[in-house]
Write a structure and sequence with these properties.
By secondary structure, the protein is of the alpha/beta class. Helices cover about 25% and strands about 15% of the residues. The chain folds into two domains: about 50 residues, no CATH class; about 140 residues, Alpha/beta knot (3-Layer(aba) Sandwich). The chain has a seven-stranded parallel beta sheet with strand order 3-2-1-6-4-7-5, sandwiched between helices. Helix 3 links the parallel strand 1 and strand 2. It is elongated and about 60 Å long. The structure holds S-adenosylmethionine. The site of S-adenosylmethionine (SAM) has 18 residues, from helix 6. S-adenosylmethionine (SAM) binds next to helix 6.
């Protein structure tokens, strides 16, 4: 399969790169398996335990285990980072991904991982905030504002939504105002910031360390 499209890869030189070829031996009958993948092989960008599974079966399995954090990203311009943020949200098993602003976003970096993720769109920050409050989630901004507090020593709540800004402007004043706190990731070099996708991976992993591995902070 082509990772970008989930279509079979026709180039024979690619066949050994990732994944598995056609199923060998007696075909399994469990309906979680996709007859086409069993016949043609499975080159998708999925973990080995999901080889030959239908997309619906994979999503159903993930839905039983999703974590309690959500992530959101503002999308007022076309930010190339969003796809990579979505891919990390899939890897760290965020409950849902929220796109605030424009509905269309650049899927390139997502490597089709968005198909296994629940992605919800909010046209305005106001709509997003109302939804988060209704869902009982603490809104936490992630950015480097003068009033930001260090992520490294912050006791992240279990039920929260981590909100990331865009390359350039960063988090909007509206999200900044709505967030209970805004958290910054400590840097040591000369650059002013890291990109949103890197920041998202670090912040999600901080939640995983706290709530999956029980690591306390500070
Ligand atoms: C390139 S930054 C935006 C610029 C930033 N607001 C500034 O003052 O230069 C894009 C997004 O990446 C995230 N980000 C980048 N570096 C960060 C850091 N050190 N700590 C927390 N978030 C960061 C934030 O979500 C931010 O909105």
């Amino acid at each position: 399969m082509n990772e970008q499209t989930d279509e079979p890869v026709n180039d024979p030189s690619m066949q050994h790169v990732i994944g598995v070829g056609p199923w060998e031996g007696e075909l399994p009958t469990d309906e979680k398996y996709d007859p086409r993948l069993l016949a043609e092989g499975d080159r998708r960008n999925v973990a080995d335990k999901y080889r030959y599974w239908t997309m619906d079966a994979i999503i159903a399995d993930l839905d039983e285990r999703r974590h309690d954090f959500h992530i959101a990203i503002e999308n007022w311009q076309h930010d190339m980072n969003i796809g990579t943020v979505v891919r990390s949200a899939n890897a760290f098993l965020a409950k849902e991904v929220h796109i605030i602003g424009r509905r269309r976003w650049n899927r390139r970096g997502a490597m089709v991982t968005d198909r296994y993720q629940h992605v919800r769109h909010h046209a305005t920050v106001e709509e997003f905030v109302a939804w988060a409050q209704e869902a009982g989630l603490t809104i936490l901004g992630i950015d480097i504002f003068p009033d930001s507090v260090p992520l490294e020593t912050y006791d992240l709540p279990k039920n929260c939504v981590l909100v990331f800004g865009q390359e350039g402007p960063g988090l909007s004043p509206e999200v900044h105002a709505a967030a209970k706190d805004t958290l910054s990731i400590e840097q040591f070099g000369s650059t002013r910031s890291i990109n949103a996708a890197s920041a998202a991976g670090i912040a999600m992993h901080a939640w995983v360390r706290r709530h999956v591995f029980g690591q306390k902070v500070g």
